[in-house]
Amino acid sequence: MASATPTPAAATVAPQFGAGGVRLFRAWTTLLMLSFNRLFWSMNTLMVLFPLVGCALFLVWRRYDRWTFAEGSFRAFSEEFMIFLFTSFVVPVCALAYATTSVGGDREDRTLLFLLVRPVPRWLILLAKLLATLPLVLGLVLTSFWVYCRLAGPIGEKAFWIYLTPVFYMTLAYVSLFHLFAVTFRHSTIVALIYSLFMEFLLGNMPGLVKRIAVNFYGRSMMYDLGGAEGLRSPDPEWFVPVSAWGAGCSLLGISAGAIVLTLLIFSLREYRDLT
Amino acid sequence: MGIDNVRYHGWEGELRTPWVACAAIIRVAMLQVFRRKSYWVVIGLGLLNFLLFWSIIYAVTQFDIPRDDQDKLLGAFGFSSEASGGQENGYIMFMQRQSIIVMILLAFSGSLLVGADFRFNSLPFYLSRRIDRRHYIVGKLLAVGTLVSLLTTVPALLLFLEYGMFTSSLDYWRDNWQTPVAVIAYGLVMSTVLSVLLVTLSAYLQKMAPIAITWSSLFVMLSTMSGQLSRRAADRNWHLLDPWRDIRYVGKLCFYAGKRLAGEVSQGANAYYGIFANDDEFRRSLWALLILVSVCTVAIVALVRRVRAVEIVN
Question: How far apart are CA B289 and CA B208, in angstroms?
Fold first, then answer.
């Protein structure tokens, strides 16, 4: 009889472990939802509508031979809108709006300290932040991309399925990279802005292999490769030697994975001294 | 403890005008900016362009380069090897090429210099002193304007000095005396427009990320769009959508006014002295001036309404 009853220690440890796991999960989901709501109901959402609406107005005026599908129009849409406006500006700005502020916002508002003192592992905090950001950025980018393609007519419908993969991979890469900036630098928004508007432009116009460290290069390579069948031609090989779509896709996924691993490492090990 | 015992007492000296407080606002703003390493990185990036122009002028004036190559090299950077006509385009080009870095620096500065005053409720402390919102606004505008000038006007003036110093006589400076005046006028236009827009945006948006998004959309996206629309419609008036281009057009007006001041504007074929390509461009510059004046007026009205010592919460 006595041996069948559990020891007091065993009786307390088992429920505690289970309850702890549940509590941790609840804490994590709360953080996830809180971060999502905080990012979504922010001034950034309102301000990011400015470039998005601007692009829609641009497309409405530009039209791209809306009611007929022509190779020239597809090429113009791809080069003018997709490469020089959407993937070079709109995608980085949407990623910047949320990815740098998911952790960076807490740092800026000095609330990261209160997050870090809670009994939640740092990697889980980061995971919650990342998972709160990704649907927002992907949702915003892919929805706006779909709307823009609808606005462009038959060319856009074709372009949507051709360029969906590069746009998805680029968004993923920018979000991961900007999270890395957010945990590494105090003013991550500005670092991200310098990277996306200055460094990528500077590197993108350099000859040789230097440009291969830019996210934009792989996105453009994928688009030139995938759009080649529809008449999109890559620029002068003296300035731009694209890699294959498969290689560029792998590189973008590699950049995303590498950036996430580095972010996890830095966030787990770093002692933030600027929290109070 | 009685107030007399802690030596609180009224100011017994002569009171100076509250406008002197603007100098203190600028000084504090500069200290805030320059004590941050990140700003030095941005300023360092901004100096890359200056070093490029400096090296070009040095190479052209000091090395024995064939005349044709010299002309081509100078022409690519907007300068001319002759001491007359055309050199000023180089200074306009230089100040224009600083646009991205100035844009980034200002996106950074807006939240620090203005947004933080609203976010952390320090505005009532400013306005509790013997200054009112006029002095606060002018102080902040001058602080942002100083930052813009440090990256645009000052380096452009240094380039003018350099160009003259590397020649064997004072002819360059003497023949182009109106160029530094025009550079300063263009710098003033740029500083005024950018500071008015930035201070207004920062007063409303306050945080760095929304300021950066709006600011970059204004200056990068509109620039790309206006270029494409202009090519598509074969109508250069679309360039008026781009605020940088508007500032550049008004800058050209400053250089043109400088030439007129020097009495060097001839009538007929060379009426615009190489600064404006044609009459259309001259007219476009006047439109750009009108646009900038209108936008700045609206921004100033919005800013004055925003700057209040007491925030009324509904």
Answer: 29
Which chain A residues touch B206 with a CB distance below 8 Å?
43
Residue with tokens 């070079």: A88
pLDDT in tens, B240-290: 988 988 988 888 888 777 666 666 555 554 566 666 777 788 888 899 999
The minimal CB distance from A47 to the residues B42, B205, B220 is found for B205
pLDDT in tens, B45-54: 888 888 988 8
Structural domain tally of chain A? 1
Per the domain annotation, does A275 fall within a domain? no
Asked if B214 has any chain A CB less than 8 Å from its own CB, the reply is yes
Residue A255 CB coordination number (10 Å): 22
Contacts of B103 in chain A (CB under 8 A): 197
Check: CB of residue A58 under 8 Å from CB of residue B225: yes
Q: Locate the domains of chain B by residue range.
A: 18-306
ipTM value: 0.81
In a domain, A229, yes or no: yes
Contacts of A182 in chain B (CB under 8 A): none
Q: Find the domain containing A146 and state its range.
A: 8-269
Inter-chain CB proximity B216 and A54 less than 8 Å: no
